[in-house]
Amino acid sequence: MIQIQNLAKSYGVKTLFEGVHWQILPRRRYGLVGPNGAGKTTLLRIVCGELQADGGAVQKPKALRIGYLPQDV
Ligand SMILES: Nc1ncnc2c1ncn2[C@@H]1O[C@H](COP(=O)(O)OP(=O)(O)O)[C@@H](O)[C@H]1O
Ligand SMILES: [Mg+2]
């Protein structure tokens, strides 16, 4: 399980998201839907550990490996 608590990210004065809570359960599938520029990719890159959040936490088991296939090459 991946547990996302109170996650926040801004770029400059633009707040992409704040107060994000999300529980990603094993073997479940999730769709993350939003307009272009909403912050979907940024959120997933924080979950992967590629980006730092400004606040909150992502908790996951130490042994968990995350695969991430970016949409652009
Ligand atoms: N490194 C960055 N510096 C400044 N703004 C960024 C950066 N990365 C993304 N953004 C901005 O953050 C917003 C969200 O981007 P993104 O997470 O790619 O959205 P989505 O995947 O939902 O289309 C966009 O307005 C984008 O221009
Ligand atoms: Mg995107």
Number of domains: 1
Low-confidence stretches: none
- Cα end-to-end separation: 29 Å
Helix content class? 10-25%
Q: How do the SSEs run, as a string of H and E?
A: EEHE
Note the quaternary state here. single chain
Q: Say how many strands there are.
A: 3
| Percent of residues in β-strands | 35-45%
Q: Give the ligands present.
A: adenosine-5'-diphosphate, magnesium ion
CA-based shape: globular
Radius of gyration: 12 Å
Short key terms for the protein model shown above:
73 residues, mainly beta, 1 helix, 3 strands, binds adenosine-5'-diphosphate, binds magnesium ion
Describe the structure.
With 73 residues, the chain is mainly beta. The chain has one helix spanning 40-48, and strands at 2-11, 14-24, 55-59. It has a three-stranded antiparallel beta sheet, covered by helices on one side. 8% of the residues are buried. Bound molecules: adenosine-5'-diphosphate and magnesium ion (MG). Residues 40-41 line the site of magnesium ion.
